Amino acid sequence: MTRLFTGTALALSLGAPAFAQEVVHVYNWSDYIAEDTIRRFTEETGIQVVYDVYDSNDVLEARLLAGSSGYDVVVPTSSYLARQVPAGVYMPLDRSKIPNAEGLDPDLMEAVSAHDPGNEHSVIYMWGTNGIGYNVEMVRERLGDDAPTDSWALLFDPEVTAKLADCGISYLDSATEMIPVALQYLGLDPTSTAEEDLAQVSELFEAVRPHIRYFHSSQYISDLANGEICVAAGWSGDVLIAMDRAEQAGTGAEIAYTVPKEGSIEWFDLMAIPADAPNPDNAHAFINFILRPDVIADVTNYVFYPNAVPASLEHVDAEIKEDPSIYPPAEVMENLFPSPVYAARDDRVLTRIWTRMRTGR
Ligand code: SPD
């Protein structure tokens, strides 16, 4: 989906004289920016924004590796950026053009430097967790009060999923996330690529496959909100968006989010500039604007993901700051592991397992 956030396209199509209009092409995750962020940026800088969205790191990576994507700012997850940097996908950031980066949390940036050495190519946009979104009543009706809502069993135990199949289970369409959390559920190393471990995952997938309604990484937001599905493997903020939509629509659906007790993924999405970006100065200006405390706070308030700018907290709504689904408490944080970085050869193995899960072949 592409959106042009100004009236210039219309003016040109009506035959207005051509003039050099500054532009920045941004490619970001869907449901990941506040309603007025882009408009405010254009009002303040005069730079138009062409804004496209995706819901998969693999889609973003394919476009970047093909080259000449035309994008100036992209938002990969750190574990993907880690393997894209050595492939020369990104330009080093010019920090003199991003003074607001000074306000980034040094501990979080240090954590991310494991994937982007020296934080040379990226700054943190938002971070979050993988977990389970579920419809409290629909799950209780089928599994009773003892439903394992604090466990990956809700998604991976075939006896459980068989009982939920009729109300709808969705999985993220992401091998690099669903396989690590399945390994975690099995009590194995979530980063393992050992043949025998992955064989156990394949067996598990085979058993639950008939009970999964679909594999998609953004459709679950509206489907959870309107009761089309009852359980979703999802990302923290997106499940909170579903909760919010259910409330706004007055559907009465009570949606909850849980980070399973077995442990889960903590991930960071980063802003970066492709090496062949056509408008690198505007890209730096966009990133600098986003990192302004009031601007990034608005995004957090709208998308329910934490950002990495501590000074933004004074602008973040109290109920968001205090929500443990958004800012996990220490005991949950201790149980999180970073998204694994996969080499190309491991990727092929994971993709094969995932294709079989999705298609049965
Ligand atoms: N709607 C925005 C979702 C952002 C999800 N980021 C991906 C994290 C991958 N581990």
Question: How would you describe this structure to a colleague?
Answer:
The chain is 42% helix and 16% strand. It has 361 residues and is of the alpha/beta class. The chain has two domains: 12-128 and 267-330, 3-Layer(aba) Sandwich (D-Maltodextrin-Binding Protein, domain 2); 129-265 and 338-359, Periplasmic binding protein-like II (D-Maltodextrin-Binding Protein, domain 2). Strands 5, 6, 7, 8, 9, 10 and 11 form a seven-stranded mixed beta sheet that branches. A four-stranded mixed beta sheet has the order 1-3-2-4. The radius of gyration is 21 Å and the shape is globular. Residues 6-17 have low confidence and may be disordered. Spermidine is lined by residues 29-32, 77, 177, 235, 238, 267, 269, 339.
Fold blueprint:
Elements: E1 2-4, H1 8-13, E2 23-29, H2 37-45, E3 48-54, H3 57-66, E4 73-74, H4 78-84, H5 106-112, E5 123-135, H6 136-143, H7 153-156, H8 158-164, E6 169-171, H9 175-185, H10 195-208, E7 214-215, H11 219-225, E8 231-235, H12 236-249, E9 255-258, E10 264-271, H13 280-290, H14 293-303, H15 318-321, H16 330-333, E11 336-338, H17 344-359
Parallel strand pairs: 2-3, 2-4, 6-7, 6-8, 10-11
Antiparallel strand pairs: 1-3, 5-8, 5-9, 5-10
